[in-house]
Amino acid sequence: MTTPTVPFSDLSKHSKEVAETLNRVHRVHIRRRDGEDLYLTTARHDREREETASVVAGLLAALVTSDEGVRAVRQALLAVFSWARHLSPEERQEFVRDLIDATRDAVDLDVHATLHRVVVEWRATARILADPALAARLTGPLPEDDHGEVLAP
Question: Fewer CB within a 10 Å sphere, N or C end of the chain?
Answer without folding.
Answer: C
